[in-house]
Amino acid sequence: MKIRAAVLEEFGAPLEVQELELAEPKAGEVLVRLVACGVCHTDLYTASGADPSGYSPTVLGHEGAGVVEVVGDSVTDVAPGDHVVTLFSPQCRECEHCRDHRTNLCLAIREQQNQGHLPDGTTRLSRDGEPIRHFMGTSTFAECTVMPEIALAKIDPEAPLDRACLFACGLSTGIGAALNTAKVASGSTCVVFGAGMVGLGAVVGCRLQGAERIICVDLSGERLALARSHGATDEMLGGPDVVEQLLELTGGLGADYTFEATGNVNVMRQAVESARMGWGLATMCGVAGKGETLNVVPRFLITGRRIAGSSFGGVKGRDQVPQFVDMYLAGDIDVDAFVSHKLTLDDVNQGFELMEAQDGIRSVIDFA
Ligand SMILES: NC(=O)c1ccc[n+]([C@@H]2O[C@H](COP(=O)([O-])OP(=O)(O)OC[C@H]3O[C@@H](n4cnc5c(N)ncnc54)[C@H](O)[C@@H]3O)[C@@H](O)[C@H]2O)c1
Ligand SMILES: [Zn+2]
Ligand SMILES: [Zn+2]
After folding, report:
1. How far is C-alpha 227 from the geometric centre of its chain's CA atoms?
2. What is the position in ligand 1's atom list of the atom closest to the CA of 89?
3. Ligand nearest to the CA of residue 318, numbered in listed order
4. Same structural domain for residues 40 and 156?
5. Which residues contact 109 (CB under 8 A, 6 or more apart)?
């Protein structure tokens, strides 16, 4: 079938919306008609050429939600008409990692996905007979995409898809960091560095876990105000003196849990140093620049602090994304407040511009 899609032709240049050919799904694969897709930093990171593993041409996009249109042979978990959220982090339920509660990093299709291929090593996207590679196993800046069944979370059809799509990446990453990675205990004190989509998700996650105090740190007063409406109890402007100020606020000892959601390695260090002596856990969500390292004085660890990292919030997507969507429908997560702009596919580059200007939390492409 013919589809319209936003193609990354050349790093650093605007995406080009073009007509491509999308082949039918093979065994274990599903054709999804996208209804909505968020524009995330990782799309921009790859489009800019900063990502060392990036390639072109490819169809970007990974924060997708849509409706199943066609299923390939042996697909059992979804059927035409089902509403789904796309998962760049799949869940095969069979590999060593999927069977272990300690991680969400499914091993089933990693290599093929990193190369821009579907699990059988080929692509369903092409242009004039030339194969075009997939991106993050999702390629959702497109009217339709073909994805492995193990990379789709089936959700309640009552959920508006232009909201549900945020659970495909940033929002689940933040919420999951608090629920899965840190397992925040009720009554505790938390610090969240960064009030973008991921940090705000972490604020929501800490609130859902019953944290007593949630201190949010950001450079933007506007974003800090938003953090308060999602459950932050204290706000602080970021900067070099933040650790001192946080220690003052927490009786000199630091917080039970800290979360880093900026991608800045200096802030990661602050997250370690503001975690409590004895048991403070610092969870890193941000993606640092190529070659950057986290500088930690070992004394902080010897005296009982721990550091964890969190990819997609430790969320096993097929199981947990539908639960998050249910929590949204029950009124426990205010997703509406995160959708700042609605765009058409043709405006996809404007989504990048808004992100660079820090205008709003998320721009969502509406395919309707
Ligand atoms: N681990 C994962 O699976 C995963 C998934 C998605 C995104 N990410 C990463 O998470 C990070 C956050 O993503 P986002 O979409 O929320 O980004 P964002 O740019 O919307 O938010 C980052 C926030 O950090 C704030 N900030 C910058 N410098 C600061 C400082 N010195 N002190 C305090 N706050 C500061 C900014 O003001 C901004 O509000 C990025 O690095 C992104 O690549 C990771
Ligand atoms: Zn993302
Ligand atoms: Zn697996």
Report:
1. 18
2. 3
3. 3
4. yes
5. 90, 92, 119, 137, 148, 150, 151
How many Å apart are CA 161 and CA 151, to the nearest integer?
17
Residue 215 clears pLDDT 90, i.e. is over it: yes
Query: 233-272: per-residue pLDDT in tens?
Result: 999 999 999 999 999 999 999 999 999 999 999 999 999 9
Half-sphere exposure of 109 (CA within 13 A, CB side): 25
What predicted TM-score, i.e. pTM, was given to this entire model? Answer: 0.97
Tokens for 151, please give them: 């990379």
How does the average pLDDT of the chain come out, rounded?
97
Q: Which CATH number fits the domain that encloses residue 351?
A: 3.90.180.10
List pocket residues of ligand 1, CB cut-off 6 Å: 41, 169-170, 173, 193-199, 217-220, 223, 238, 261-264, 267, 285-287, 310-312
pLDDT single digits (tens) 269-303: 999 999 999 999 999 999 998 889 999 999 999 99
- 214 and 195 in a single domain? The answer is yes
d(CA 229, CA 140): 30
CATH number of the CATH domain containing 246 = 3.40.50.720
